[in-house]
Specification:
Helices cover about 45% and strands about 15% of the residues. It starts with 5 loop residues before the first strand and ends in a 9-residue tail after the last helix. The protein contains ten helices and ten strands. Helix 2 (about 80-90) crosses helix 9, helix 4 packs across helix 5 and helix 4 (about 145-155) crosses helix 9 (about 220-235). The chain has about 260 residues and is α/β, with parallel strands linked by helices. About 40% of the residues are buried. It has a six-stranded mixed beta sheet, with helices on both faces. Strands 4-6-8-9 form a four-stranded mixed beta sheet. The chain is globular and about 55 Å long. Strand 2 (about 15-20), helix 1 and strand 3 form a beta-alpha-beta unit. The protein has one domain: Alpha-Beta Complex (2-enoyl-CoA Hydratase, Chain A, domain 1).
Length: about 260
């Protein structure tokens, strides 16, 4: 029997999507990405769902890119198109009409943080680590983080976080506006479910229309921003600095970047 990488449960108008590859830090492997996309499609067709909670198994919400994997590469497709295609699985969450809540049970970095950013509300583990440390491995940010982080945190805080690649704990993330709430590890999912229950108890059509109005009021389309970033990100992965960043990351060493 094939193991599921993503588990979907629906109970009393609330759907829970759980990344279930704790053994691999819930990283963005092909099976997990496809599992998220499939769960989103299933929930989108389920008219009784009024709120969706996305969480992870183990002590990681989502570990982002799986640098250890050696997936086959289709060289006939431009690099930026391949990059955007990877993110498109998580970006499918943007197509949901009902509110989404990220119950960030543990660490979320890089693309893993991107998963939380495309949700409407974020509940963090006060003790876990969060950030977009792309520049630390010689890569341009992705998953529309250059649009979303300034939107949530304000330009000064987002600029510092993106340009330094700094990772902060959940308590600091809440202070900076990156997340709505930071609670103890055991309280992350209960807090998220409590908010989901409040949303689910409100008028369903009014909630959907309110979410749409909030999103319509924003300027740049998130998917367009993600595509723009994919262009720059694919260029950055062709550099020697990116190779050095990944090498140092896998060995737990400090990278030596030379700007090439």
């Amino acid at each position: 029997m094939t193991r599921q990488s993503v588990v979907l449960e629906i109970d009393r108008h609330i759907a829970t999507i759980r990344l279930d590859r704790a053994d691999n830090r819930n990283s963005m492997t092909p099976d997990l990405l496809e599992g998220v996309s499939n769960a989103v499609a299933q929930v989108r067709d389920e008219g009784d769902v009024r709120c969706i909670v996305i969480t992870g198994s183990g002590d990681t919400f989502c570990g982002g890119k799986d640098f250890k994997s050696a997936a086959a590469v289709d060289e006939s497709t431009p690099a930026h198109e391949r990059t955007y295609a990877i993110y498109s699985y998580f970006l499918s969450i943007l197509d949901l009409e009902v509110p989404t809540i990220a119950a960030m049970n543990g660490d979320a970095v890089g693309g893993g943080l991107g998963l939380a950013l495309v949700c409407d509300i974020r509940v963090a583990n006060a003790e876990a680590n969060y950030g977009a440390p792309f520049v630390r491995v010689g890569m341009h940010p992705g998953m529309a983080s250059t649009l979303l982080l300034p939107r949530f945190m304000g330009l000064p805080n987002a600029t510092e976080l993106l340009l330094t690649g700094r990772v902060v704990d959940g308590a600091e993330a809440a202070r900076l506006g990156l997340v709505n709430h930071a609670v103890s590890p055991d309280d992350v999912l209960p807090k998220a479910m409590s908010i989901a229950e409040e949303i689910a108890s409100a008028a369903p059509l009014a909630v959907r229309w309110t979410k749409r109005s909030i999103n319509d009021a924003l300027n740049e389309d998130i998917k367009a921003a993600a595509y723009r970033e994919a262009m720059q990100q694919s260029r950055s992965t062709e550099t020697d600095d990116f190779k050095e960043g990944v090498r140092a990351h896998l060995k737990g060493e400090k990278p030596y970047f030379q700007g090439r």
